[in-house]
Amino acid sequence: MPNPRPLEKIRQVLQWAVIAIFFGLLWLPTLDSFFHLDKAPIPNENRNPAKFPVFNQRVTGIRDFIAGLESYYNDHFGFRKRLIRWSNHWKRELFKQSTLPNVITGRDGWLYYSDDGMIENSLGLARFQPKQLRDWQTLLETRRDWLARRGIRYLFVIPPNKESIYPEFLPKWLAEAHPTTKLDQFFAYMKTNSTVEVLDLRPLLLEAKKTGLVYLMTDTHWNYDGAFVAHQELVRTLARQLPGLEPLSLASFKKTISQKPGGDLAGMLGQERTMLEPEYPSFTPVPPLQPLRTIQAPQLLPGKKWETAGPVFTENPSRTNTAIIFRDSFSGAWIPFLGYYFGKVIYLSEQNWEPAFIEKEKPVVVIDEMVERFFYTANPVKLKISDGLK
Fold first, then answer.
1. Shortest CA distance to 306 belongs to which of 324, 335, 329?
2. At what angle do helices 130-148 and 380-387 cross, to 10 degrees?
3. 372: closest CA among 99, 128, 91?
4. pLDDT of residue 73
5. Helical H segments across the chain, by residue range
6. Interatomic CA distance for residues 325 and 330, integer angstroms
7. 323 neighbors 367 (Cβ within 8 angstroms)
8. Buried b / exposed e across 193-229, counting CB within 10 Å, b at 16+?
9. Across 32-46, 106-120, 249-263, 303-317, which has the greatest mean pLDDT?
């Protein structure tokens, strides 16, 4: 008959080991709070974490302080960063779920941004009312005419959302919808009712995607291939108002393909290290073209507060004239290209105009770039009031 004592000792050792591991796990969050053991990057939650509350003497002071402590703890408990990333990763891997309501997990690793009415617009549930279309016409004609009186050309361009170019990778319930969109309404209306130059990039990008990716799989933006062909179409359109412009060919650049960490949507899920961009193109100018120098220039508009990036400009001594672009993040991928056509290109990260700045810089053209989702949510009446054009 086997001696029970060794088995009993093994059982006791295992019990104590379980107890030690249990208490170790209980203390790990506290140890992380003091010694910062969690080296995982901070998840991009598009918000600031709660700050430690300040006690006040009001009647509700104690209640507010306790509530503040709870919020602070929820945002700062030990190993929170690592646990969030693990949770997001396994929900995606096992259940094909997004952990954020504004990020949609599509097919074959594609991610889509679903805020700013994306679902309603994709299903055709959102429509422009006639007055809204007239308001856009009024804004754009007011801007065009104000510039024309100063000898300046004007172009309005709308880069399309990713789902407008790649609907096939959306979840099935969205991918099968093919409605008339608000963008269709707008371009049809402007073609019939106005002479303002507006540029629809969708046909070009839909054609370009037949030969390669033009948007990033894990990001809201187009890639440099998409930005390049879009910039060519932009220059061709500008040439109707500024004769002599001719877009650079692809042969003017050396293109390389690399793998990069995931983009902004992967970052929002905390998965930029596991959801990689498999084909990330980059462009290097081939001599005689020289790389453009990009300059961060907050001094261009001193005293102005910027919600995102401040002014950026490029200089090209081989060219003359200035172009100003009022923009969002999409035209950031144009910066390596557009500077070859002008002596200076100034990029202002806003949709509200700066009339005094335009008059000071005396550009030959002003370009309004507004991505589709921002176009749907922008208010042309408020923009017109904010411009204050006379």
1. 329
2. 30
3. 128
4. 60
5. 4-35, 61-76, 80-95, 118-122, 130-148, 162-165, 172-175, 182-193, 202-208, 224-238, 264-268, 335-338, 355-361, 372-377, 380-387
6. 12
7. yes
8. ebebbbbbbbebbeebbeeebbbbbbbbbbbbbbbbb
9. 249-263
Asked if 378 and 370 touch (Cβ cutoff 8 Å), the reply is yes
Query: CA–CA distance from 122 to each of 68, 79, 126, 170, 378 (Å)?
Result: 39, 38, 8, 10, 18
Token readout for 261 is 């960490």
For 88-146, what is each residue's pLDDT tens digit? 555 555 544 555 567 888 888 899 998 888 888 888 788 999 999 999 999 999 999 99
Closest-CA residue to 158 (of 140, 144, 143, 138): 140
Report the mean per-residue pLDDT for the chain: 84
Predicted confidence band of residue 306 (pLDDT cuts 50, 70, 90) = low
- For residues 87, 92, 98 and 103, what is the CA-based torsion angle, rounded to 10 degrees? 110
Lookup result for tokens 């040439």:
239
Query: 277-285 and 293-296 as β-strands: parallel, antiparallel, unpaired?
Result: unpaired
Residue 72 has what pLDDT?
64
Q: What is the 3-state secondary structure (H, E, C) of 259-309?
A: EECCCHHHHHCCCCCCCCEEEEEEEEECCCCCCCEEEECHHHCCCCCCCCC
Tokens 């754009």 correspond to 140
pLDDT band at 19 (very low <50, low <70, confident <90, very high): confident
Q: How far is CA 344 from the centre of its chain?
A: 25
Q: Of the candidates 29, 68, 34, which has an alpha carbon nearest to the alpha carbon of residue 51?
A: 68
pTM of the model: 0.76
Residues paired with residue 347 on neighbouring β-strands, in sequence order: 312, 325
Report how far residue 327's alpha carbon sits from residue 329's, in angstroms, rounded to the nearest whole number.
7
- Rounded CA-CA distance 366/356 in Å is 13
- How far apart CA 14 and CA 17 sit, in angstroms, is 5
Rounded to whole angstroms, the Cα distance separating 200 from 234 reads 10
Task: Using alpha carbons, select from 50, 84, 46, 48 the residue that is nearest to residue 67.
Answer: 50
Q: Can you give the pLDDT at residue 283?
A: 95
- Cα–Cα distance measured from residue 329 to residue 88, given in angstroms and rounded to the nearest whole number: 26
Q: Which residue has the higher pLDDT, 204 or 279?
A: 204
